[in-house]
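Sample intake sheet
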Amino acid sequence: MALVSDPQVLFLDEPTLGLDPQSRRGIWEHIAELKGKKTIVLTTHYLEEADALSDRIAIIDEGKIAALGTSRELKDSLSDMQVMVVKAKNLTPDVISGLREVYPEVKATEDGVEIKAKELSFYEIVDYLRPRGVTIQSTSLKQTILDDVFLHLTGKELRE
């Protein structure tokens, strides 16, 4: 409906709210086709949507702009920390406590741990875990997503 009058500036408020994945993808493709032809202002709570469609993103918290930039700029603002996801068996509370003595943030997960620090060494982590009987199934570095940026800027607690 917003395109019927062929506007130069298009305001889209939550354009894919409640849509199934196929319809949402179709809307995304249409918006992408309009880029460069129209100015588009998109508001969304779906940060993967903002990531996929936006040239510039403003994160708004309590009515104020908390951050403004490209997706890459916003993600790079958190790049001082790395997160390694370790899927493993035989992780005991003592082993996790030992990791917490070395790394600033260690979060136990259902099938392993997430370790967060400025510098992470795969070899140091493996050298710590293996002698303690931990079987490592996989490791990976977690990529920063816009959700991470949003939560970092606005806090993780549920607010009224």
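Comment: The two ends are 33 Å apart (CA to CA). Residues 21-34 form the longest helix (14 residues).
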